[in-house]
Amino acid sequence: MFSFLGGNAGTWRVTSMTTIVGEPLPAVSHISIVAESFTGSDDLARHAIWILRGITSNERYVTRAEKEQLVAVQQDLGRKESTSAAVIPIRKSLSWWALTQDERRDILAGQSRHVRIGLQYLPAIARRLHHCRDLSEKEPFDFVTLFDYASDDEKAFNQLLQELRTSPEWEYVDREVDIRLALS
Ligand code: HEM
Protein backbone atom coordinates (compact mmCIF):
# COMPACT_ATOMS: atom_id res chain seq x y z
CA MET A 1 0.00 0.00 0.00
CA PHE A 2 1.35 3.40 -0.96
CA SER A 3 0.03 6.85 -0.05
CA PHE A 4 0.59 10.02 -2.05
CA LEU A 5 0.25 13.03 0.22
CA GLY A 6 -0.22 16.39 -1.46
CA GLY A 7 0.45 19.45 0.67
CA ASN A 8 2.70 22.41 1.39
CA ALA A 9 5.78 20.35 2.31
CA GLY A 10 7.20 17.00 1.23
CA THR A 11 9.97 15.08 -0.48
CA TRP A 12 9.06 16.10 -4.02
CA ARG A 13 8.46 19.67 -5.23
CA VAL A 14 5.60 20.04 -7.70
CA THR A 15 6.82 21.72 -10.89
CA SER A 16 3.48 21.53 -12.72
CA MET A 17 -0.03 20.15 -12.30
CA THR A 18 -2.09 19.77 -15.46
CA THR A 19 -5.62 18.44 -15.65
CA ILE A 20 -5.78 16.38 -18.84
CA VAL A 21 -9.45 15.39 -18.47
CA GLY A 22 -12.12 15.48 -15.76
CA GLU A 23 -12.14 17.16 -12.38
CA PRO A 24 -8.85 18.81 -11.27
CA LEU A 25 -7.12 18.07 -7.97
CA PRO A 26 -6.57 20.99 -5.56
CA ALA A 27 -3.18 22.63 -6.19
CA VAL A 28 -0.30 21.61 -3.89
CA SER A 29 3.35 22.61 -3.84
CA HIS A 30 4.81 19.29 -2.60
CA ILE A 31 4.10 15.56 -2.57
CA SER A 32 5.39 12.80 -0.29
CA ILE A 33 5.16 9.18 -1.39
CA VAL A 34 5.15 6.73 1.49
CA ALA A 35 4.77 2.98 1.74
CA GLU A 36 1.98 3.18 4.32
CA SER A 37 -1.69 3.83 4.66
CA PHE A 38 -2.43 7.00 6.59
CA THR A 39 -5.39 7.80 8.76
CA GLY A 40 -6.59 11.30 9.61
CA SER A 41 -4.81 11.21 12.97
CA ASP A 42 -1.27 10.76 11.58
CA ASP A 43 0.83 13.92 11.79
CA LEU A 44 1.90 13.83 8.14
CA ALA A 45 -1.69 13.21 7.03
CA ARG A 46 -3.05 16.12 9.09
CA HIS A 47 -0.93 18.49 7.01
CA ALA A 48 -2.01 16.97 3.70
CA ILE A 49 -4.41 18.78 1.38
CA TRP A 50 -5.26 15.46 -0.30
CA ILE A 51 -4.18 11.83 -0.04
CA LEU A 52 -4.35 9.25 -2.83
CA ARG A 53 -3.91 5.60 -1.94
CA GLY A 54 -3.20 2.55 -4.05
CA ILE A 55 -1.81 -0.94 -3.85
CA THR A 56 0.62 -2.77 -6.08
CA SER A 57 -0.95 -5.93 -7.42
CA ASN A 58 -0.56 -8.85 -9.77
CA GLU A 59 -0.44 -8.14 -13.50
CA ARG A 60 -3.66 -8.67 -15.42
CA TYR A 61 -2.75 -8.18 -19.07
CA VAL A 62 0.90 -9.03 -19.79
CA THR A 63 1.81 -12.24 -21.54
CA ARG A 64 4.75 -14.37 -20.37
CA ALA A 65 6.84 -13.05 -23.29
CA GLU A 66 6.05 -9.41 -22.44
CA LYS A 67 6.79 -10.03 -18.77
CA GLU A 68 10.19 -11.47 -19.63
CA GLN A 69 10.97 -8.48 -21.85
CA LEU A 70 9.96 -6.08 -19.06
CA VAL A 71 11.97 -7.88 -16.40
CA ALA A 72 15.04 -7.90 -18.66
CA VAL A 73 15.14 -4.10 -19.06
CA GLN A 74 13.13 -2.35 -16.34
CA GLN A 75 14.87 -0.54 -13.50
CA ASP A 76 13.77 0.24 -9.97
CA LEU A 77 12.50 3.63 -8.89
CA GLY A 78 14.89 5.77 -6.85
CA ARG A 79 18.09 5.70 -8.96
CA LYS A 80 20.39 8.54 -7.96
CA GLU A 81 20.09 10.24 -11.37
CA SER A 82 16.27 10.15 -11.16
CA THR A 83 15.73 13.69 -9.97
CA SER A 84 12.47 14.11 -11.93
CA ALA A 85 9.24 12.22 -11.47
CA ALA A 86 5.60 12.17 -12.52
CA VAL A 87 2.54 11.12 -10.55
CA ILE A 88 -0.42 10.64 -12.87
CA PRO A 89 -3.67 9.51 -11.24
CA ILE A 90 -6.11 8.03 -13.76
CA ARG A 91 -9.74 6.96 -13.73
CA LYS A 92 -11.35 4.90 -16.46
CA SER A 93 -15.02 5.12 -17.43
CA LEU A 94 -17.77 2.72 -16.42
CA SER A 95 -17.85 1.45 -20.02
CA TRP A 96 -14.23 0.23 -19.55
CA TRP A 97 -15.15 -1.61 -16.38
CA ALA A 98 -18.20 -3.13 -18.07
CA LEU A 99 -15.92 -4.86 -20.60
CA THR A 100 -14.67 -8.39 -20.08
CA GLN A 101 -11.03 -9.13 -19.31
CA ASP A 102 -10.31 -10.31 -22.87
CA GLU A 103 -11.94 -7.19 -24.36
CA ARG A 104 -9.83 -4.94 -22.11
CA ARG A 105 -6.67 -6.85 -22.99
CA ASP A 106 -7.51 -6.46 -26.69
CA ILE A 107 -7.84 -2.66 -26.33
CA LEU A 108 -4.81 -2.15 -24.04
CA ALA A 109 -2.34 -4.48 -25.75
CA GLY A 110 -3.78 -5.37 -29.17
CA GLN A 111 -5.25 -2.05 -30.38
CA SER A 112 -3.19 0.38 -28.28
CA ARG A 113 0.14 -1.47 -28.00
CA HIS A 114 0.55 -0.03 -24.47
CA VAL A 115 3.23 -2.51 -23.39
CA ARG A 116 5.02 -2.47 -26.76
CA ILE A 117 5.18 1.35 -26.74
CA GLY A 118 6.17 1.49 -23.07
CA LEU A 119 9.02 -0.98 -23.55
CA GLN A 120 10.71 1.41 -25.98
CA TYR A 121 11.17 3.93 -23.16
CA LEU A 122 12.84 1.49 -20.76
CA PRO A 123 15.20 1.55 -18.93
CA ALA A 124 15.26 5.39 -18.94
CA ILE A 125 11.83 5.57 -17.31
CA ALA A 126 11.19 3.56 -14.12
CA ARG A 127 7.57 3.00 -13.10
CA ARG A 128 5.19 1.61 -10.51
CA LEU A 129 1.46 1.05 -10.99
CA HIS A 130 -0.87 1.38 -8.00
CA HIS A 131 -4.43 0.09 -8.10
CA CYS A 132 -6.98 2.20 -6.19
CA ARG A 133 -10.11 0.49 -7.46
CA ASP A 134 -9.04 -2.65 -5.60
CA LEU A 135 -9.42 -0.68 -2.35
CA SER A 136 -12.88 0.64 -3.20
CA GLU A 137 -14.88 1.82 -6.20
CA LYS A 138 -15.36 5.08 -4.27
CA GLU A 139 -11.69 6.09 -4.57
CA PRO A 140 -11.29 9.27 -6.66
CA PHE A 141 -9.09 7.44 -9.23
CA ASP A 142 -8.74 3.83 -10.41
CA PHE A 143 -4.93 3.98 -10.67
CA VAL A 144 -2.03 6.11 -9.47
CA THR A 145 0.89 5.78 -11.86
CA LEU A 146 4.38 6.81 -10.74
CA PHE A 147 7.45 7.31 -12.93
CA ASP A 148 10.96 8.62 -12.29
CA TYR A 149 13.77 9.52 -14.65
CA ALA A 150 16.77 11.79 -15.17
CA SER A 151 15.72 15.36 -16.01
CA ASP A 152 17.18 14.93 -19.53
CA ASP A 153 14.64 12.18 -20.19
CA GLU A 154 11.58 14.37 -19.61
CA LYS A 155 11.24 14.98 -23.38
CA ALA A 156 11.14 11.23 -24.04
CA PHE A 157 8.58 10.84 -21.26
CA ASN A 158 6.37 13.49 -22.90
CA GLN A 159 6.67 11.66 -26.21
CA LEU A 160 5.59 8.42 -24.50
CA LEU A 161 2.52 10.15 -23.04
CA GLN A 162 1.65 11.61 -26.42
CA GLU A 163 1.71 8.09 -27.92
CA LEU A 164 -0.44 6.57 -25.17
CA ARG A 165 -2.94 9.44 -24.96
CA THR A 166 -3.77 9.18 -28.66
CA SER A 167 -4.37 5.41 -28.43
CA PRO A 168 -7.85 3.75 -28.25
CA GLU A 169 -7.22 2.86 -24.59
CA TRP A 170 -7.25 6.54 -23.61
CA GLU A 171 -10.79 7.01 -24.98
CA TYR A 172 -11.80 5.26 -21.76
CA VAL A 173 -9.86 7.63 -19.48
CA ASP A 174 -12.32 10.06 -17.94
CA ARG A 175 -10.14 11.64 -15.24
CA GLU A 176 -6.40 12.28 -15.48
CA VAL A 177 -4.15 14.76 -13.71
CA ASP A 178 -0.51 15.02 -14.79
CA ILE A 179 1.69 16.08 -11.84
CA ARG A 180 5.39 16.65 -12.50
CA LEU A 181 7.91 16.60 -9.67
CA ALA A 182 11.51 17.51 -8.91
CA LEU A 183 13.48 16.52 -5.81
CA SER A 184 13.11 19.39 -3.34
C1 HEM B 1 7.33 3.65 -19.03
C2 HEM B 1 6.83 2.82 -19.90
C3 HEM B 1 5.62 2.00 -19.58
C4 HEM B 1 5.55 0.65 -19.52
C5 HEM B 1 6.70 -0.31 -19.81
C6 HEM B 1 4.22 0.30 -19.13
C7 HEM B 1 3.77 -0.99 -18.95
C8 HEM B 1 2.55 -1.34 -18.48
C9 HEM B 1 2.10 -2.68 -18.31
C10 HEM B 1 2.92 -3.93 -18.58
C11 HEM B 1 0.84 -2.63 -17.85
C12 HEM B 1 -0.10 -3.81 -17.60
C13 HEM B 1 0.02 -4.35 -16.21
C14 HEM B 1 -0.91 -5.55 -16.10
O1 HEM B 1 -0.66 -6.55 -16.79
O2 HEM B 1 -1.86 -5.48 -15.30
C15 HEM B 1 0.50 -1.25 -17.69
C16 HEM B 1 -0.70 -0.79 -17.19
C17 HEM B 1 -1.00 0.53 -17.03
N1 HEM B 1 -0.24 1.60 -17.41
FE1 HEM B 1 1.56 1.52 -18.29
N2 HEM B 1 3.48 1.44 -18.98
C18 HEM B 1 4.29 2.49 -19.23
C19 HEM B 1 3.92 3.82 -19.19
C20 HEM B 1 2.70 4.28 -18.80
C21 HEM B 1 2.32 5.68 -18.78
C22 HEM B 1 3.21 6.85 -19.21
C23 HEM B 1 1.06 5.72 -18.29
C24 HEM B 1 0.20 6.93 -18.11
C25 HEM B 1 0.29 7.81 -17.27
C26 HEM B 1 0.66 4.38 -17.97
C27 HEM B 1 -0.53 4.03 -17.38
C28 HEM B 1 -0.92 2.74 -17.11
C29 HEM B 1 -2.19 2.40 -16.51
C30 HEM B 1 -3.26 3.36 -16.00
C31 HEM B 1 -2.23 1.02 -16.45
C32 HEM B 1 -3.38 0.17 -15.89
C33 HEM B 1 -4.30 -0.13 -17.02
C34 HEM B 1 -5.48 -0.98 -16.62
O3 HEM B 1 -5.31 -1.92 -15.82
O4 HEM B 1 -6.57 -0.69 -17.12
N3 HEM B 1 1.66 3.53 -18.32
N4 HEM B 1 1.54 -0.48 -18.10
Plain-language structure description:
The chain starts with a strand and ends with a strand. It has helices at residues 43-46, 64-73, 94-97, 101-111, 114-119, 154-165, and strands at 2-7, 12-21, 30-34, 48-54, 84-92, 126-131, 143-149, 173-183. Helix content is 26%, strand content 33%. With 184 residues, the protein is of the alpha+beta class. Strands 4-1-3-2-8-5-7-6 form an eight-stranded antiparallel β-sheet. It is globular, with a radius of gyration of 16 Å. It has six helices and eight strands, in the order E-E-E-H-E-H-E-H-H-H-E-E-H-E. The chain binds protoporphyrin IX containing FE.
Low-confidence stretches: none
Number of strands: 8
Which ligands occur here?
protoporphyrin IX containing FE
Termini separation comes to 24 Å
Helix-strand topology string? EEEHEHEHHHEEHE
Strand content: 25-35%
Radius of gyration: 16 Å
Mean pLDDT: 95
Largest sheet: 8 strands, antiparallel
Q: How is the largest sheet built, in terms of strand order?
A: 4-1-3-2-8-5-7-6
Structural class of the helices, strands and pairings? alpha+beta
The general outline is globular
Helicity level: 25-40%
**Count, helices:** 6
Task: List the main descriptive attributes of the protein structure presented here.
alpha+beta; 8 strands; binds protoporphyrin IX containing FE
